[in-house]
Amino acid sequence: MAATLERAEQLDTDDELAVYRDRFVPIMDPGVVAYLDGNSLGRPLLATAERLQHLVRHEWGTRLIRSWEEGWLTLPERIGDEIGRVAVGATPGQVIVADSTTVCLYKAIRAALALRPGRTEIITDTSNFPTDRFIVDGIADQFGLTVNRIDSIDEIAEAVGDNTAVVTLSHVDYRSAAIADMAAITRITHDRGALVVWDLCHSAGVLPVQLDANDVDFAVGCTYKFLNAGPGAPAFLYVNSRHHNDFRQPITGWMGADDIFAMADEFKPALGIRRALSGTPSIAAMAGVEMGIALLAEARIGRVRAKAQGLGRWVIELADVWLAPLGFVVASPRSDEQRGGHVLLRHPDAERISRELIDNGVIIDFRNPDGIRIGLSPLTTSYVEVWHAMNVVKSQYSRTPS
């Protein structure tokens, strides 16, 4: 079939998730042709603005400090349970909304290491997100551990050994969008006696994740991408219930204590997942998480996944027809089952082209060294929007000297 605007319009007509676009704050900038960066920062929900207004005027403005005992104190667990139920396949009591992804990752890796005393190796891959690699390096340097950096997650079976304590990887590659085999990698890791920490930042909210079913030990994920919770919204942390009696996280604060109002002389951890908390949670920031996961529950992750696959196919088809002759290469898996919620295009001039695309209203990400990342947020991205964006790429690059 032809890669026409009419076809894009028909795809949108057939899209059962199209109605959800009206739930988001409209983009008022007339210069924006397409917003294809929702996998870095999702668009704001209208419901979030309403929720924040109620929070400020009633819960904070009227009930004041009483709101802590009227619901705020349990928000991290209640929203965490919804994230577990709706997005990551975890039964109640195993997910909690906590700090930034970086802090949650630090807590998870340190907790996993403590559960494997005597083992001195952490495994990660060289293409993992910088935060993940930096955290691993920092922990290893602090405690005199060895970091085994593999070049591909396909090397896991050979890399994990008797000295491996923790394997930490991203479920979806932040550049290529390749999906790691969570079940197989977790099984291999456990067979060698090690524990696994998964980063779900580019999978939570755009594809089904099954943490319990895959017997994952620890996982972290952000909420400001496909969950549309807002810039700097808090991350979440998953700890498998089989570790709840033993895991200790390193940043012990009063919110993780068994009795936060005892003002005790010594720290005694709370039972279960709540011991993963440290300081006072940001209630205002969690409002966006609450609304984002509620919308995902309504839309249903299976339908979101199906649309993400369809949008990805559409980008790849347009790239093959329009952009391959201009030197662009599709660097994401072509198989729907192996690709996450974005598509990476490679080009030697990607950095310059990315700047020019943004200047011309196509909001995308440049990823070093030569990647243009097309983010496909299923609840806000339309097929027509993608068509116009790819048409700008074709038209602009055709007339720009290489």
TrEMBL record:
Catalyzed chemical reaction(s): 3-hydroxy-L-kynurenine + H2O = 3-hydroxyanthranilate + L-alanine + H(+); L-kynurenine + H2O = anthranilate + L-alanine + H(+)
GO molecular function: kynureninase activity
Pfam families named in the record: KYNU_C
SUPFAM superfamilies attached to this UniProt entry: PLP-dependent transferases (SSF53383)
Keyword Secreted found: no
Pathway stated in the Swiss-Prot or TrEMBL entry: Cofactor biosynthesis; NAD(+) biosynthesis; quinolinate from L-kynurenine: step 2/3; Amino-acid degradation; L-kynurenine degradation; L-alanine and anthranilate from L-kynurenine: step 1/1
EC supergroup of this enzyme: hydrolase
Key words of the record: Hydrolase, Pyridine nucleotide biosynthesis, Pyridoxal phosphate
Entry's EC annotation: 3.7.1.3
Names of required cofactors: pyridoxal 5'-phosphate
Source species, domain of life: Bacteria
Function as written in the Swiss-Prot or TrEMBL entry: Catalyzes the cleavage of L-kynurenine (L-Kyn) and L-3-hydroxykynurenine (L-3OHKyn) into anthranilic acid (AA) and 3-hydroxyanthranilic acid (3-OHAA), respectively.
Protein family according to the UniProt entry: Belongs to the kynureninase family.
PANTHER family: KYNURENINASE (PTHR14084:SF0)
Subunit and partners: Homodimer.
Protein name: Kynureninase
